[in-house]
Each structure stands twice: as C-alpha cells, then as structure tokens.
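Components:
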Amino acid sequence: MNHADVKAEYDSFKKLGLKLDMSRGKPAPEQLDLSNALLGDLGGFKAADGTDTRNYGGAVGLAEARTLFASLLDVPAAQVVVDSSASLSLMHDVIVYGMLHGMPGHAPWVAQQPISFLCPVPGYDRHFSICESLGIKMINVPMNARGPDMDLVEKLVAADASIKGMWCVPKYSNPSGAVYSDETVRRLSAMTTAAPDFRLLWDDAYRFHHLGEEKIAVPNILDACEQAGHPDRAIVFASTSKITFAGSGMAALAASPANFHWWQRHVSVRSIGPDKVNQLRHVHFLKDKAHVEALMEAHRQLLKPKFDAVLAQFAEHLRNVKGVNWTHPKGGYFIDLVTPHGAAKRTVALAREAGITLTPAGAAFPYGNDPDDSHIRIAPSFPSLTEITQAAKGISISLKLAISS
Amino acid sequence: MNHADVKAEYDSFKKLGLKLDMSRGKPAPEQLDLSNALLGDLGGFKAADGTDTRNYGGAVGLAEARTLFASLLDVPAAQVVVDSSASLSLMHDVIVYGMLHGMPGHAPWVAQQPISFLCPVPGYDRHFSICESLGIKMINVPMNARGPDMDLVEKLVAADASIKGMWCVPKYSNPSGAVYSDETVRRLSAMTTAAPDFRLLWDDAYRFHHLGEEKIAVPNILDACEQAGHPDRAIVFASTSKITFAGSGMAALAASPANFHWWQRHVSVRSIGPDKVNQLRHVHFLKDKAHVEALMEAHRQLLKPKFDAVLAQFAEHLRNVKGVNWTHPKGGYFIDLVTPHGAAKRTVALAREAGITLTPAGAAFPYGNDPDDSHIRIAPSFPSLTEITQAAKGISISLKLAISS
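Structure:
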C-alpha cells in the first residue's frame, strides 16, 4: 500500500465534511416510525383483569405485559417481571441487590469482597461500566463464533469462588454477532462453580433482531439450568428498546421462582410499581408474538441494506488488506471490524477527523482496554443508507491510512 | 361509654358488609380522570430542542421536563433531574449510591457501618422500609405541628457521626399533615452535624396538594442550606404521581451542583436515559406551573369533601371520647387518628372485621413499631364520598369498642 496514495484518498474523503455519529447502536428514525401508533390514543386504561393502570400497584408488572414477555421468552408468566424502560437498569439493580442483600440464601457480595465477573470480550461496554462502577473485578474471556471459550470459563469458575457472575449476550452478541451454540449453553448450565451464588446475567437483547432469513434459536437457558440441577443460575433480561422506542419501551426479567421472589422482595422496597400505562399501551400495540415478529421483519427490511452496504464497502476497500477482517452478523446491531494489532485507536481518531464518530476503540473491553488495540465496533443502524455507505468507505480509508507508513 | 351499646352499634355496622380498602393514599378514579388527556394522542415526538424522544439518551431527563420541575420547585433547571415514574425509586437509589459509592468526596456508607437515619414519627412507611431493607438503623424523632423536635434533632446529629441522613416530608406530612415552619427549615439547614456526609432527604410529595384555600409555602431548602454554608446537605424529591397518574408520571430530584453531578455520574451507569416520550407527553399536558396549579385545584375540589366527611364523622362520634384526637390537615393525603395508648392495633383489627382495611397500626413508625400503639393513618382519597363517610363512622365505632370494656 502506497502511503501517499492512501493519504490523498483520505484527504479527499475528509473534504466531504461529513458529520456522522456511529458511536452507539441507535435505531434509525424510520425504525422508530414503525411504532408511532404508541404516540396515539391508548384507547382505555383498564387492564384485562380490571386493574386501573393509572393508579399505584403491581410491583412485578401488568399481567398482560408479563404474559406477552412470557410468550416472547418462552418462560412461565409467573416467573416474569416487567419493569422499567431499560433492561440495563434491571441488570444494574440485580447486581446492586446482590451487593447489598446477597443472592437468595447467601451473604451480600459487599461482605464477600473481592468479587469478580467473567466478561467475554469483545463485549458490551455498558455491562462492563456497571462492574467497574461497583468495584467488581472483571476477568476477560475470549469470545469465539460459538460463544465464550468454555474450556477457560469452566476452569476459572471451578477454581475461584470470588467469581460471582458472568455477562452473556447469547444471540447476535454485541459487538461480534456471535451466537452461543447448544453446546455452549449446555456447558454454562452444567459447569461446576466454586461460588454457590454464581449467576449468569443473560442479556437476550437481540432475540428477535435477525438480519438474515434464518431465525436462529438459542436453547432456553432457564430450562437448561434447571435440568442441570442449577435452577437459580441464570437471570434473563430483555426489552422492547429495539422493538418499539429506545428507552421508552418495556424491559423484562425472567428467572427461577427463587430469583423471582428475591427480586420482587427488593423491588417492592424501591417502588410501588412500574409504569403500567406504558405497559398497557405496549401490549395494545404489540399484541402477541406473531405481531412482534412481523414488526421485527419490518425492522429487518430497514437494517439489512445498511449492514449490506457496510460489508460491501469493507469488501471493496479492505479485502486485500493484511490482518484486517470483520464479522458477518446474522442479527443484532453491530459489526466487529478487526484491525492489525495497534491500529484500532488510530483508525478511530482518523475517522473522527474525517467527521465520523465511532465508539472509542477499546470500549468493548473491560476498563476500556483492548490489549491488542484491534477491535472497532461498527453500528450501522442510525445513519441513512447513503450516509452509512460513505461512512464505511471513510472508515476503510482511515484504517488503511492508520496502517500505512 | 356502655360496652353493650357500643358492641350493638358495631355489630349493626358490621352487617352493612362493607368492603373498603383505605390502606394507601391512592387517588380516586375521578382524580385520575382529570389527566385522561395523557391517554390520548401525544401530537409529535420532537422535543423543543429537536431531540427525538423515541430514541436513547438524556440521562438527566428531557430539557423541557427539567424546566417544568425547576419552575414547580423554584430551583435552577440545571440542578434538576427528571427520571423514573416514582420519586420513591429516586430516594432509594440516592441511598443505594450512598451505600455503594459514598456521597461526593466521602467513603461509601457500607465502609462506614453502622449507619443511622433520623426518622420523624409518625412518618411514611415506605421511607422506613428502605432503611430497614438496607440495614440502616432508624432513630425516632417526634413530629410536632411545626416539624420534627429540633432540639432533639440538633443534639443527635451533633453527637453521632453515624447519622448520615434524615427523612423529611416538609409540607402536609404523611400522615399528620404537619408543615415545617420557617424556623424548622432554618435550623435544619444551619445545624452542625458530626457526619460531614449527612443528607436531608427532602420528600416534597405534597407541595401542590392543598386542601384549604390557604396555599402554604415552606422555605426553599436548597437556598437555606446554601446560605447556611451547607450547600450539599439537602436533596429534594417530587413527582407527578398525585398530580397526573400514580406510578405513571414523572419523578424529579433537585440538588446542589455537586450532588447533581454525583447523581448523573451514577445514574448514567444504570441507564441510557429515562422514558422521554412520557416526559414529553406530561409536558404537553401539564404545560406550566399555572396549569399544574389549576389541575391541583380540581383535585382539591374532589378531595376536600372526603376529608370534611371524615372529620365530621370523627367529630360526631369521637368528640367526647377521652384520649382520642385527630389532625386537621391543610393539605396532603392523610389524617392521623390518635387513640388512647394501646388501642390502635385493636381498632384496626375491629375495622377490618367490619370490612374496612386500614394501614396496619404501627406502619407509620420504623420497624412497624408504634411504642404507644396509638396512631392510625386514615387515607380518605380513594373511596367514594358515600363510602368514606360510612368508613369513618365504622372506624369511630371500632375505636369506641376497642377502648370500651
């Protein structure tokens, strides 16, 4: 690669004066438009059981909202909590309750310091921020195409009782798009952990967020854990943030009866009940699993061309560049662009100079530290198709410039 | 009082077969109807600054929602957070952040155990549940008509560095209706505390909830604390739960810049942002302070006759009963019925047998323990006027029977 040529290409791209923010996996306005009926008339405030959703109560959510999530997550409604508009908040609070109250039948984590979590990497920066903020030590575990390196996971959790939890994005993982295999799920549910109060934080964020025709299924983790004799091991999280409105939808938690009642006890101290009006509004709009799937197909139609455009640009500009590769996700919101070692930060900086804001390099690793400085998270959802095409070209040129010298 | 006569009166009342729940301060359906426009068409999703409320972001709330609360609470918008649909959750989380992270510039409370809070009694049971759940020791302080016993408060906080906080419902206090005097506010802001990380949890739940013509004002606690040289001492909480929909409205927190940024830092780990669609919906509906006050006048018209009915029944049936008295609140949601010592539990049990569910006796005290067993919280808001009149009569008869022998 000729440095002068790449530099000229970069300078000419820079002159376009782009101003694009691709730092987060935000839905595009056209995706949000799909749910604009939520802005309209609710058509009544009485729930099916007569509950006046405008008044206090219902710490674990509206009955029909719990039933809807039960059907979406394939779990009994009695084990589902619908609360908050962000599953991240539910995950945060599960860990906070673990710190201050302890998991059911166990001492508070603050009384068992130090505490550690396994973090498959690259992973979701906001998961890692929760651990960092609470002083929970994070241990990196490599992510492969079929999930985390299970040999390493099994070895670590068997040996170290300070490991109280593990972050899991089982399907279309953020940012690599990896999907946990049946074998990965089986081993996670069956493995021996030194900590009796170990939990899998199962963030099923992209359960319905397919990009291809294939609708990949991951085995039910609650069933797997129960069958393996560890019924309380997993806590499942989901939300409608990338189904209806981001941050104004419904979030849910599903867990064993023991974990469910533990959550109910602690959340009842925090709140008299969630926003049931918004839950009813969502149930009226989403109706049932078939309607959710139809809505997600409409999202797919909007997202797929953007992913294809990025992949096409990468193929065109980076195919023959040594040490560069990228994921081809079958769902989710991200592409993981892998650079030669030591080039990710420089690429992100060059892209920014050219008007393209990317997630900071390293963000997909605990403490923001990618030891190889080689992962860049690409979020194609928010910009328009034209913009994302330009941006993918600009990122490609920035990467080429970063590694030319 | 003739026991047989009272017993006969009670038996005849019981035969009415009432089924009334007066255990909580829930708004009545007619009050909720006042805000039914919130169920209708939002009329757009763009905030004044162009923010698409349907997408992620805005950890401290939508700009116009913060401006509205700033005007309602008489504080700068830059110091206001709008988040969650329940101020109780904001209070809970402030204490949780205090436990796990510490107040700005101070060690986490979990590292400073034991921790204590001052609890004016009778007070709000859900405040006390938060402390109990987190293992925070509660110290009773008697509430008078002008606020808590300040001589005792000053003595306690000056002597004991374990006292990290104090619950305050400054106006129309739950359950007595007491209003903090100017002098009480001045002394709370000026007093010397042994703990440098002491906080007033200022629950301004009933700021606009007048029952009489008089609109009582309590001095601005943030200003008072700043002027007294303790700018970070108070954190103010409020919500629209008893203005629009209970549990589906907006909640807010107002505090000094240091406390505001402390909250912002920690909440940004918990969530990408609150439900801005609901915030915009509320701002469209509530408009400004004048509209909120007009709405509260409509609430007052519905609530006043219910309070008057209870007071009239108590006057008729209990006026000449020795050792019995009750508060005449100028606002808020409760009347505190004070029985002779040792009679509250028995009265509540008799009322329940007659079909009237009251808040458990003792609930207004830490650990559910009213040392004199003499306070019953009456919540007139939810039942209809006919029902509340019957219920107040039934409670009066139950009390008379409880103390006759």
